[in-house]
Design a protein that fits this description.
Helix content of chain A: under 10%
Number of strands of chain A: 11
Order of helices and strands of chain A: EEEEEEEEEEE
Radius of gyration of chain A: 13 Å
Number of strands of chain B: 12
Number of helices of chain A: 0
Oligomer: heterodimer
Strand content of chain B: over 45%
Radius of gyration of chain B: 14 Å
Largest sheet of chain B: 6 strands, mixed
Strand content of chain A: over 45%
Shape of chain A: globular
Largest interface: A-B, 27 and 25 residues
Distance between the termini of chain B: 38 Å
Number of helices of chain B: 0
């Protein structure tokens, strides 16, 4: 069975460009998470969806960051007017049941480099 | 205050030896879960083991075990009989039940290197 997939795997953007990062969670998974992982650091939470509802966006660092999951499956993280500090690996994770202590399954990440 | 603290930036261990990776946590929530993930150089986060705050016994999964000391708020990962393929970054993470929070809070990680 397919795991969580993310595309693109690598993205290079010039400062000021907009980027869109895609996440395909495991089929049927209710919960979807985005994390940002800076070089040499642990992942940090950005936002969380339960089906199509964005229930927590407390980790989004600025209003340049926007995430959506319109049909409760695929999600897109959009970063507008990218800046050098946005350079990081963006990880997507999903789990089957909301509100349960089951593991989150992670995708391979998208490495974003802003020049 | 740091919610998850991993005090060992790097660890070097001989193959076949056991290794303990330290993790302490901070929470006022009586209900929480503790996770360990492995991140090889390929970048993917691989789930290793889970411990619930109300679990009476320490979690075990094959060569992995979690030394859970609730009063000390520690959740150390023990890898027995280490293998070359265990070389990776290891992250401790916590999820709190407070207000239905779903997110994982991660520590800074420990880079484990297994020497032949």
């Amino acid at each position: 069975g397919a795991g969580v997939s993310q595309s693109p795997r690598y993205k290079v953007a010039k400062r000021g460009q907009d980027v869109a990062l895609r996440c395909d969670p495991i089929s049927g998974h209710v919960s979807l998470f985005w994390y940002q992982q800076a070089l040499g650091q642990g992942p940090e939470f950005l936002t969380y969806f339960q089906n199509e509802a964005q229930l927590d966006k407390s980790g989004l660092p600025s209003d340049r960051f926007f995430a959506e999951r319109p049909e409760g499956s695929v999600s897109t993280l959009k970063i507008q007017r990218t800046q050098q500090e946005d350079s990081a690996v963006y990880l997507c994770a999903s789990n089957l049941i909301a509100g349960d202590y089951n593991e989150q399954f992670f995708g391979p990440g998208t490495r974003l480099t802003v020049l | 205050a740091q919610k998850i603290t991993q005090t060992q930036p790097g660890m070097f261990v001989q193959e076949k030896e056991a290794v303990t990776l330290d993790c302490t946590y901070d929470t006022s929530d009586p209900s929480y879960g503790l996770f360990w993930y492995k991140q090889p150089s390929s970048g993917e986060m691989i789930f290793l083991i889970y411990q619930g705050s109300y679990d009476q016994q320490n979690a075990t999964e094959g060569r992995y075990s979690l030394n859970f000391q609730k009063a000390r708020k520690s959740a150390n990962l023990v890898i027995s009989a280490s293998q070359l393929g265990d070389s990776a970054m290891y992250f401790c993470a916590m999820r709190e039940a407070l207000q239905g929070a779903q997110k994982l809070v991660f520590g800074q990680g420990t880079r484990l290197t297994i020497n032949p």
